[in-house]
Amino acid sequence: MHQHNINLALQILPQVPSEQVYAVVDEAIAVIQQSGVKYRVCPFETVMEGPYDQLMDIVKRTQEVCFKAGAGQLLVYIKIQNNSLGPVTIEDKTGKYDG
Questions:
Q1: Three-state SS sequence of the chain
Q2: Which residues form the Thiamine-binding protein domain (predicted)?
C-alpha cells in the first residue's frame, strides 16, 4: 500500500438521545483535531487528509471516544479516495470553491 496521502470522509451516527448527538460527535471531532492531520468539518461528515494507516487509526479512536461518551451503538460511514499515482488532497476537489 502506498504511504502517500489519501482523503477519508468519516460520518459517525451515535445511538444516544437526540439532545446528546452533537456532544458525542464533538468528542470524535476532538480526536481528529488533536491528531494533527489536515481536516475539514462539513455538515454531514468530516474529511481528513493523511496517510492511510494514520487515518484508519484515527477512525478507530473516534469510535472508542464515542463509546466512552455513552453511545451504545454507532453507525460509521467511511469514504476513501486513494490514487496509486500520488497523493490526494482536499484542495484538489474543493480549492476552487474556497473564499
A1: CCCCEEEEEEEEEECCCHHHHHHHHHHHHHHHHHHCCEEEECCCCEEEEEEHHHHHHHHHHHHHHHHHCCCCCEEEEEEEECCCCCCCCHHHHHHHHCC
A2: 9-97
